[in-house]
Amino acid sequence: MRETSEAIVGAVTGPLTAPRTLLLGRYDTAGQLQYVGRTTTMARTASTTVAPRLVAGQPGHPWTGWSFSAGWGSRETLNVTLVEPALVVEVGVDVARDASGRWRHPARWHRTRPDLAVTDVPHLPPSPS
Fold first, then answer.
1. Fewest Cβ atoms nearer than 10 Å: which of 33, 55, 89, 102?
2. How far apart are CA 30 and CA 39, in angstroms?
3. 101: Cβ contacts below 8 Å, ≥ 6 apart
4. How far apart are CA 47 and CA 98, in angstroms?
């Protein structure tokens, strides 16, 4: 089962001028941007729509020093470029999530949401105790 939802773009694979995938985040209840998943490979038209809205990450980016796995159970890490977490996108996601609230399967990019601020994006649910 799939649903649409919003997320914040925190990093990309590929160049900023032609991103291949978007790494997505949501804020937790402590106000920290947490990784929740990434998109499938973007079509050229989607990539050219998103690229002008991306700004390279600045020092102090919330994901500085993080590494991202290339896939479930993989030791390979993705080569990512951090971006300012200011762009909200709508994605189609599988309702399956892990214990930390991350989407278990890649999201499908639908559109940018310039009408939404990052504060409008749903927060991660509290971690189970």
1. 55
2. 25
3. 26, 34, 36, 124, 125, 127
4. 28
Nearest Cα to Cα of residue 103 among 38, 40, 33: 38
94: tokens are 């599988």
Q: What is the pTM of this model?
A: 0.89
Instruction: Of 97, 96, 99, 91, give the one whose Cα is nearest residue 116.
Output: 91
- Residue 71 CB partners (closer than 8 Å, separation 6+): none
Q: Which amino acid is at 51?
A: A
Paired with 23 in beta bridges are: 11, 38
72-125 tens-digit pLDDT? 666 778 899 999 999 999 998 877 666 666 777 788 999 999 999 999 999 986
Whether residue 33 contacts residue 8, with contact meaning beta carbons closer than 8 Å, is answered with: yes
